[in-house]
Amino acid sequence: MGTYTKIFLQFPPDQVFWNTSYQFLLYADPHERGYYPVFQSLDGEGFLPGSGIIFVTVVHTQSYVVEAQDEEITKAEVLGVLRSMFGAEKVPEPIGFMYPRWSLEPWAYGSYSNWPPGTTLEMHQNLRANVGRLFFAGEATSAQYFGFLHGAWFEGQAVGNTVAKLIKTDGYIDQVHYQTLHGTTPEQEYNAINGWEVSTFLTYGFE
User: Fold this and answer.
1) 6-57: per-residue pLDDT in tens?
2) CA atoms within 13 A on the CB side of 194
3) Bridge partners of 55?
4) Nearest-10 Cα torsion for 83, 88, 92, 94
5) On the chain, which terminus has fewer CB atoms closer than 10 Å, C or N?
């Protein structure tokens, strides 16, 4: 599992200190890589104008640190970064502060699936395959879009259609499950049966 933590702060709408016409605000810490680097404003056109909400994203090591530490420590660190960016006198105390702790959730232990090196389509298909009348769907079962919201959407749609069809026809299927696993994925296995709907090998004329 991978971990990706979004930390949300809400400030009084009349004390917003950043330029709300910008969606992203970047910070490069001089000492520590990945230390609260990317802020995103939700107080802008197309999002939640007038909300006073901004969030910052941390990943990997920083994400695990943040999710394991006390919320007040995280708040102080984030405010420290914002005050170094905009000036201490311009950044008030937030009226709202929250973030999820995906890496500590017993049912998840992370915020998205992440294939380790050496994972093949055969291994992944074994994760996707139904067990009798039990079918699985989510971003983790998407061969092409694992780790992303649209992966969950496409998988849910596909499995829903399969189940609906079986109900209408009183049918039954067993999706492909590999008893013998190989160390690599042959080109011919990049197909719809294994959840691979488009070709990875298209060159678009750039051979």
Assistant:
1) 999 999 999 999 999 999 999 999 999 999 999 999 999 999 999 999 999 9
2) 19
3) 8, 40
4) 30
5) C
Identify residue 157 by its one-letter amino acid code: Q
Scan for tokens 């910052």, then name that residue: 56
Nearest CA among 203, 202, 207 for reference residue 190? 202
Query: DSSP letter at 120?
Result: -
The string over 80-117, giving b where at least 16 C-beta atoms fall within 10 Å of a residue's C-beta and e elsewhere, is: ebbeebeeeeebeebeebebebbbeeeeeebbbbeeee
Strand runs labelled E in 3-155? 4-10, 24-26, 38-41, 53-59, 96-98
Contact 68, 109 (CB under 8 A): no
Residue 58 tokens read as 């941390």
Cα end-to-end span (Å), the chain: 35
Give dist(CA 18, CA 182) in Å, integer. 53
pLDDT band at 77 (very low <50, low <70, confident <90, very high): very high
Is the model's pLDDT at 201 over the cut of 70? no
Model pTM score? 0.78
- Per the CB < 8 A criterion, the answer to whether 90 and 82 are in contact is no
Helix%, strand%, coil% for the chain, nearest 5: 35, 15, 50
Residue-level pLDDT at 171 = 84
